[in-house]
Every structure is written in structure tokens, then in C-alpha cells.
Amino acid sequence: MGGDFPRGRSAIAGLATFGVGEAPGFSSMELTARAAVLAVADAGLRIDAIDALFICQPDDFFAGLSFAEYLGLSPRFTDNNRTGGSAFMSHVITAVMMLEAGYIDTALIAYGSNQRTNGGKLATSIKPNSWDAPYRPLFPLSSYALAAARHMHEYGTTREQLAEVAVAARQWANTNPEAFAKGPLSIEECLASRIISSPISVRDCCLVTDGAAAIVLTRTDRARDMPRPAVPVLGAAAATWWNSIAQASDVTTTAAAESGPRAYHAAGIGPADVQTVQLYDAFTINTVLFLEDLGFCPKGEGGRFVSGGTIAPGGTLPVNTNGGGMSYCHPGMYGLFAIVEAARQIRGEAANQLGKIDVALAHGNGGTLSSQATVILGSADTL
pTM of the entire structure? Predict the structure, then answer.
């Protein structure tokens, strides 16, 4: 059982990205701080107005403490949730509840990584658990390959359909000046790319980039008086079903099948009301699984759903309109960038602005399809 979500009573008042792509000479914390300072300024605030910090850095186990020290703050609350790329959606849930309770007044959620210019690897060493290790999986890639192979076996999903995800992401990125990967990309090129962990190829994998993002949340009645359009949080929910995918009873269904419906219920809407979807697309199979689990198509229909340009520019469901983790950026974890893009669409300032957007969904994934979290954002007209 759970209490009611405070629909629309907290809002994103500021946001920013920094160093997306390659940012030589910056540490992960320096990138994070730059994005944070820009987001606070975007909200029309001074840094000392922040009284809660939420962060999950790739290379600092005590990032919450380091971030406070770096910014010169003494926050009332610091959270360093480490559920992977879904952590930032969970940060939103915690911040909203704390704002509603009156425990804090202004929350800063931030993330940054110099993964690309630091040699392409995260400093944090994550290894398969002892039950998986004898099979020598590639972490985390082999887990996603397992999900993709099973989806193909059960539902007839094809590599061509997975390639549609990568091609659509590239089409969005080609018209986003901030996106890292640009240029033509065809289904044929994806199919011809090197297999890393069958059936996952190079083109089924996200980028390795630098980059940072940050958002500022406060109560909506206060955010309305700030310089930028307030983006209320209509609903949000998180769910964790396993750590290792080897413990899953069904590798073709993720905990998004739980977080999504609970987020919809909190927001008082359904999938048909969502105008744009920003998904954590670490691998092409992610997009297929999450579109199914979040109710945009029936289970098993994801491959067919993404075919024919449905999620590409001009399609009926715009997905990852910045280019996503496949072509926009992926500095270790992508979750916060999905939230920023959803908020930019509602504020009317996205690089690939879709027109007037009133409802946008951002979904984060952590671990090996382990932790799922869904955030639904709205415009002032949804309140």
C-alpha cells in the first residue's frame, strides 16, 4: 500500500546540460558542478538557495558529500542513491515527497561523467555476481543480449526491428546541435555491424561520451514566479525486481510494467495521453521492452511497433527526441538527460521541439534491466 502522490504540487524550475559529447580537461565532479550552477541560474536562484542535493556519480562512492563540499553548501538532506540510470527518476520521487512534507524547499539533482575522455571506462568496477561469473558474461551487455534473444524467440522480433530504434535515434540527433553522433545511419549498416554479444551488435549499443545534466525542483506555487516555465511533476513511481537478470522469471518483461501503471495512476492519465516519451535506451532492446511495459503497445508487439518510422521524426509517437543514449549522449548513465529532454519539450525549447507539449514521460533503467523508474511531467495547463 502507498499514499497518494502529490500530483503537480512540485515542479522543475531550472535545468541545464554541460559538456555533452567530449569535454577534455574536466573531472566528473567539475562537469556536474558546471551543469548544477547553470540549472540554478536557469531557475533564477543563488546556489545558497539549494537545501537538498541528489547525486549519483560514477567514480565517487561518497559523491553526496563531495558535491556539497564542492558547491560550498551545507544541505539539510543529501541522497546518493545508486540504482544506476534509474536513480535520477527515484531522486525526483524523493525530492517531491520531501518538498510536499515541507522538509526542504529547493532540491538540486545532478550528474556528470568524463567517461569518454577518461579512457572510455567508468572508474567504478561492477562485476557479475558469483552465480553468473562462471559463464563469463560481458557486463552489462550480455544481460541485454539475453533479453533480446528471448524476445526474438518468443515474439519473432528481428534484428531489423531493433535497428529501427538506432536509426530513429540518429534521425533525431541529426537535427540536435548538442548531439554527439550525427550523420546517415541505415538499417543495412546496423545489420552489418560487428556482433559483440549475440544478437547485440555495435549499433545496438549506446554511446560512450562525457556530459552532465542538472535540474532544480521546488514547490509549484513558488516555481510559477520564477523566470522559466514551471514543469510540474504529475506522477512518478519506481520498482525493482532483481539485480542479476539471471534471477528474472521472464526476461522479456521488466519492472517498468509496475512503475509505469503506478506513475500513470498518480498522474491521472494513461499512455494515450502521453505526447512524447524519453526512454533510457542503453541498448536497442530497451526501447522495445519499455514501450511494451509502459503500455504503448502490447507485449511482444514492440518490434513491429517501432518499425516504419513510428518513433522517428514525423512518427505517431516521438521517442527520444534528442537522439537518446544511442546518438545524443551516454556518459555512463543517461537517466537525468531523459528528464531534461522531457522538460525541455514541455517548456517549448527542445532542439527538436514538437509543438505544444502538455504531457511527457521520462523513464529510467538501472543495472541489468533491474531497476525501473517512471516520471510523468506536465505543463501548467495540466493542473
Answer: 0.97
